[in-house]
Structures are given as structure tokens and as C-alpha cells.
User: Which sequence fits this backbone?
């Protein structure tokens, strides 16, 4: 493998993704735009806890920690997911350049992964910002945090790998439908939010949703992310880590094979460039 | 004058017809549009339940989710519609017909209201059936009055926003994205705005959605009648003509400016 060539490609596609994301305005407006949405989301969900605490007259630091970390870490996954899946819809429907990128880059799958990198970086910083602002907002004492940097690094890395694989799988489905592309993307994000221990433990969901929650790596990842912030967060760390690693491997293998199959099929039926106008 | 109104209503009817028929001919689309917002609303309902919050909060969340569908329709179905028409190359066709743009926007608003009402009603039905959300039905007429006024104010705001897309394309799209979460937060989507600090409550009250949502919740959950909600009715009634005038003026101004600067049919910018 020619590493230099690969790095040049990653740089070129990331630069392109960055331009597409940010060059519509001045840098300071872009920074504002990038911060306003996650901070508003933080306020939106933090106030669920605050409304409850005001109504009940009692604080629950464990619940506050659970909710804020859930919202914060979701930024990382949500951004990565969106950054990859949306490419198909955007380049086919809006800019009509999917075919050019398809023929100019060696693999569409590789192209999609590179397009997502900048979104993960952005999501990472947003996670940190939301944690730093959100925990004090709900009255959580920051001195209670006992972070574990090694676990945090591993969790972020695994998150990148499984979320990218899941996004590749979802993007391969959206290759077939210009109409449903955005909905598939939104649907996957919503499903992870609902079943992935983001705002509440997935055990609270009705039993028929448990298999979906178990199939996705989000639940383990979210709990391990919380653990990486506070090692007193009571979970079975080795078991969750083993489960997350196993699921990540399965997702990587499955999504790669599935994408190859779908890529071949979509070209065969001539749907690669089919927009909603077709 | 008569011809102008006739054209306005014909354009509105034509656009609303397309929106209603186009939006409902595909069952899978309707299902998606009901299920997607439900994913978020359901998450919040379970979050409240896991916190052990009182039952009224479930009703708050369900009503918030239903009303938020209208805001999203205003943002994406009204606001960014002209951006989409521009991207698809339809806008120039609209512009060269004698039909006024206001008629087009009115049609989008009426069609959007109809479609969104179908989806929002489904959310309330799901809330009642699955989450046992409880509502006071005696004050339903009051809730309907406030609901109707809220829609008028919201869609007038949507018409004003749509005109921005005549000038700005991609940045307008981003502006629509920017107006999702902040408005969800400020309008008290999942909780009463009384939990906000006073200054935030005042800022939030500028939005018709906040006042409307608060009024509907007060009538359907707390059982308050029209006399208790006079201020809500008054404020929404005052907002409607103001927003309508702003919408028409802005539309004319943006159309003029876009034509002058050659941005009217400029794509991908």
C-alpha cells in the first residue's frame, strides 16, 4: 500500500469536505453556525433535567451526568454519521457531481470515509465543548469527574470505526433511492439516539426494541464514553469493551462486503445517478 | 384588482393542490414523516419517565412535538422551498408566469398546513395510545382558536423567510438549519418556558410558536379557557398582520434585489 498516496488522497478529500462545509460564509459566521446548533441542543435537553429538578425540588447528579454526557458524545457520532451518509444525497441531488467523484476516486467507499473525517474532528471538539459547558449548567460538580484518557482515546477510535462502517452500510442503501436518501440518514441518527443509551438507559424501551438496541454498538460505546469521563460510573468495562470490539469488527467486515455488492448492483440497474427528477 | 386576486388564488390553489397530492400519494413518505419526529419525541418521553417526572410532562412533550412539525414545515417546506425550486430550475418558470409569488407561497402554506396537520395528528394519537398522554377536552375550542392563530402567524413568518432564499441560496439553507434547534429550545418544545430565567422568557415570547404552544398546553393540559388565555389570543392576533406586512414587503424587496444582482436563478451558491 502506498501510504504517501493514501495520505494525499485523505488530505485532498478532507480539504474538499471542509470547503463544502465552510466556504459559504465568513469564518466567524461559520464558527457561530457550528456552535449554535449543538449548544442549543444542549440547552434543549439540559432543560429537560432542569424542568424535572425544578418540578420535583430535588437534584439528581447521576441523572444530570447521564444526560449531558449522552448529548455531548452524540455530537461525535451524529456528525460522523451525517457527514458520510449525506454525501450521496448532496452530490447526486444538489450538486450533481457524484458521477465525477465516482470516476475520479479509486473507490466510492474510500471517498465516503475521507469525506467523513472532517465531521468527526468537528464532532470531537463539539463533544468537548458541550461537556465543558453542559455539566456546570445542570449543576454537576466537575471535581467529581475522574477521566481515563486511555479509555477515552480507545473509545473515540472505536467510535470512528464502527460509526463509519454503519454509515457506509446506510450510504449503500441510500445509493438506490434519491427520494429516501435524506430520510434514511435522519432515520439512522434518530434510531441511534433512541436506542443507544443517549438520554435514558435502553432497558426502559419496550421489549420489542431491545434486539435493535443490542444489534447496534451505540449502547456499549456510550456507556464506555461515560466511563472514560468518570471511572466511578458503574459498568462492566471489560465485558462492554469486548462486546464493542466484536461488534466493530463485524460492522467493518459486513459493511465493506455489503457496500461492494450494492455498488455493483446500483451500477447494474443504472440507479447511481438517478435523481428525484427521474 | 379582481384579476390580481383571481391570479393570486388560482396560483395558491394550484400550488396547494400539488403539495397535497404530491405529499400524500406515497404512503411510505407519510409513514417516514410520522416516524422520524416520533423517534426524538419518544426519546424525550422515555427520558422523562426514567427521571420519574409527573404524567403531565408526557402531554407537554407530545404537544410540543406536534407543534414543532409545523415549525419544521415552515422552515423546510416554506422557507427553503424557493431554494429547492431554484436548484431544480423551476424558479425562473414561476417568475415568468403572471401569477404573483405571494400566491405561490400562500399555496405552499395551505398545502403544508394540511399535510403537517395529518402528521401532527398522528403524533398526538400515538401519544394518547402508547404513552397515555392525558388532555382536557372541554377546552378544545380554546385550543383550536389558539392553534389557528398560531398557524397564521407561523406561516406568515415562513413567507417572510422564503423571500430570503431568492437572494441567498446555500447560506439560506444553513440559516434554516440554524433556526431548528435554537427555536426548539426557546419555544419550550419539551417543557414549560416558566423554567427559563425571566430574560429568556421575554425573548422566547417574541416567537409565535412559543406563545401558541404555551396557550395550547394551558388549555389542553391545565384546562384553562379563552378568558384565562386572553393575552395569548391578543399577542398572536397582533403578530399576524405585522408578519404578513413584513412578508410581502420583504418578498418584493428581495425579488428586486435578486434580479438586480443576478442572483435569482443562480444555483449552487
Assistant:
Amino acid at each position: 500500500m502506498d501510504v504517501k498516496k493514501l495520505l494525499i488522497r485523505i488530505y485532498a478529500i478532507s480539504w474538499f469536505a471542509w470547503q463544502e462545509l465552510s466556504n459559504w460564509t465568513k469564518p466567524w459566521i461559520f464558527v457561530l453556525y457550528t456552535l449554535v446548533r449543538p449548544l442549543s441542543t444542549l440547552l434543549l435537553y439540559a432543560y429537560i433535567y432542569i424542568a424535572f429538578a425544578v418540578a420535583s425540588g430535588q437534584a439528581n447528579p447521576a441523572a444530570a451526568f447521564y444526560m449531558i454526557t449522552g448529548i455531548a458524545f452524540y455530537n461525535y457520532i451524529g456528525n460522523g454519521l451525517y457527514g458520510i451518509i449525506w454525501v450521496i444525497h448532496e452530490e447526486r441531488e444538489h450538486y450533481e457531481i457524484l458521477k465525477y467523484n465516482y470516476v475520479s476516486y479509486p473507490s466510492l467507499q474510500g471517498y465516503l470515509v475521507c469525506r467523513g473525517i472532517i465531521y468527526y474532528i468537528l464532532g470531537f471538539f463539539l463533544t468537548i465543548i458541550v461537556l465543558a459547558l453542559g455539566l456546570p449548567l445542570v449543576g454537576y460538580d466537575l471535581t467529581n469527574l475522574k477521566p481515563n484518557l486511555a479509555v477515552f482515546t480507545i473509545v473515540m477510535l472505536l467510535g470512528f470505526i464502527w460509526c463509519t462502517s454503519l454509515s457506509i452500510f446506510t450510504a449503500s442503501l441510500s445509493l438506490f433511492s434519491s427520494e429516501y436518501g435524506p430520510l434514511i440518514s435522519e432515520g439512522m441518527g434518530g434510531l441511534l439516539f433512541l436506542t443507544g443509551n443517549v438520554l435514558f438507559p435502553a432497558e426502559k424501551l419496550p421489549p420489542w426494541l431491545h434486539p435493535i438496541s443490542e444489534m447496534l454498538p451505540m449502547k456499549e460505546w456510550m456507556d464506555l464514553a461515560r466511563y472514560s469521563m468518570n471511572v466511578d460510573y458503574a459498568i462492566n468495562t471489560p465485558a462492554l469493551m469486548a462486546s464493542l470490539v466484536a461488534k466493530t469488527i463485524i460492522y467493518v467486515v459486513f459493511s465493506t462486503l455489503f457496500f461492494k455488492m450494492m455498488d455493483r448492483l446500483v451500477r447494474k440497474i443504472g440507479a447511481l445517478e438517478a435523481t428525484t427528477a427521474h | 384588482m379582481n384579476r390580481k386576486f383571481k391570479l393570486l388564488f388560482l396560483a395558491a390553489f394550484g400550488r396547494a393542490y400539488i403539495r397535497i397530492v404530491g405529499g400524500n400519494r406515497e404512503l411510505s413518505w407519510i409513514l417516514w414523516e410520522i416516524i422520524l419526529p416520533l423517534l426524538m419525541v419518544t426519546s424525550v418521553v422515555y427520558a422523562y419517565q426514567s427521571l420519574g417526572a409527573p404524567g403531565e410532562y408526557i402531554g407537554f412533550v407530545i404537544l410540543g412535538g406536534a407543534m414543532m412539525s409545523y415549525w419544521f414545515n415552515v422552515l423546510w417546506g416554506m422557507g427553503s422551498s424557493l431554494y429547492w425550486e431554484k436548484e431544480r430550475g423551476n424558479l425562473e418558470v414561476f417568475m415568468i408566469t403572471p401569477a404573483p409569488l405571494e400566491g405561490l407561497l400562500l399555496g405552499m402554506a395551505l398545502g403544508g398546513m394540511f399535510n403537517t396537520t395529518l402528521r401532527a395528528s398522528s403524533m398526538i394519537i400515538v401519544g394518547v395510545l402508547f404513552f397515555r398522554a392525558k388532555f382536557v377536552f372541554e377546552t378544545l375550542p380554546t385550543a383550536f382558536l389558539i392553534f389557528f392563530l398560531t398557524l397564521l402567524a407561523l406561516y406568515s413568518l415562513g413567507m417572510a423567510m422564503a423571500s430570503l432564499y431568492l437572494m441567498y441560496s446555500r447560506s439560506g439553507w444553513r440559516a434554516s438549519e440554524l433556526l431548528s434547534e435554537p427555536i426548539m429550545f426557546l419555544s419550550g418544545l419539551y417543557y414549560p418556558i416558566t423554567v427559563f430565567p425571566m430574560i429568556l422568557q421575554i425573548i422566547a415570547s417574541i416567537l409565535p410558536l412559543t406563545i401558541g404552544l404555551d396557550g395550547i398546553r394551558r388549555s389542553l393540559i391545565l384546562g384553562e379557557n379563552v378568558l384565562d388565555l386572553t393575552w395569548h389570543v391578543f399577542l398572536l392576533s397582533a403578530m399576524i398582520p405585522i408578519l404578513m406586512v413584513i412578508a410581502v414587503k420583504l418578498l418584493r424587496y428581495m425579488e428586486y434585489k435578486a434580479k438586480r444582482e443576478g442572483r435569482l436563478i443562480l444555483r449552487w451558491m
